[in-house]
Amino acid sequence: MQWMIGAIGRMKAGPETDLVTRYLDRAKKSGRALGITRVDVREFSESRKGSVGERKQDEAGSLLSALPKGSVIVALDETGKSLTSKQFASLVNQQLQSGTSCLVFVIGGPDGHGTEILENASQTISFGQATWPHQMVRIMLAEQLYRVTTILNGHPYHRA
């Protein structure tokens, strides 16, 4: 299985990018035993359309057009379901067991996701009710993906 993070907005070099890279490298290495073959990040520019609705629709189109065929989408959205790390690992494991070829985690822009993303997502999850900058969401997602691999591999990193 391939994992992909599709995100609106581009991260600049700095400590946030370093953290995302570190956690995703760890996830790649520990994910090999689970059949994770790739972990990619695809970044897309924020839309410059005039209205919120147009921007969300434009960004959704960019994200969806870049997904490999047969991808399963997990949307990160403040309206989504809040999961424990073990529940998140279970969600990912279900996709691993079902033979999903590409699991895509999508992070919207400042205005959130367009309806097309939310309608095509198999799951919509949240990292809480607060609104987080996209850089922080990427860090939290990268860490949780690494944590998923350690939970599924029985590694002691996750101690809850």
Description of the molecule:
It contains five helices and five strands, in the order E-H-E-H-E-H-E-H-E-H. It is α/β, with parallel strands linked by helices. It has a single domain (2-153), classed as SPOUT methyltransferase, trefoil knot domain (Alpha/beta knot, 3-Layer(aba) Sandwich). It has a five-stranded parallel beta sheet with strand order 2-1-4-3-5. Strand 1 (2-8), helix 1 (15-31) and strand 2 form a beta-alpha-beta unit. Helix 1 runs parallel beside helix 5. The longest helix has 20 residues, at 134-153. The radius of gyration is 15 Å and the shape is globular. The protein starts with a strand and ends in a 7-residue tail after the last helix. The mean pLDDT is 94.
Give short descriptive properties of this protein.
160 residues, alpha/beta, Alpha/beta knot, five-stranded parallel sheet, 5 helices, 44% helix, 23% strand
What number of domains? 1
How many strands appear in the DSSP assignment? 5
Query: Between the first and last Cα atoms, what is the distance in angstroms?
Result: 26 Å
Secondary-structure element order, N to C: EHEHEHEHEH
The CATH topology, please?
A: Alpha/beta knot
Strand order of the largest sheet: 2-1-4-3-5
Mean pLDDT: 94
Name the CATH architecture: 3-Layer(aba) Sandwich
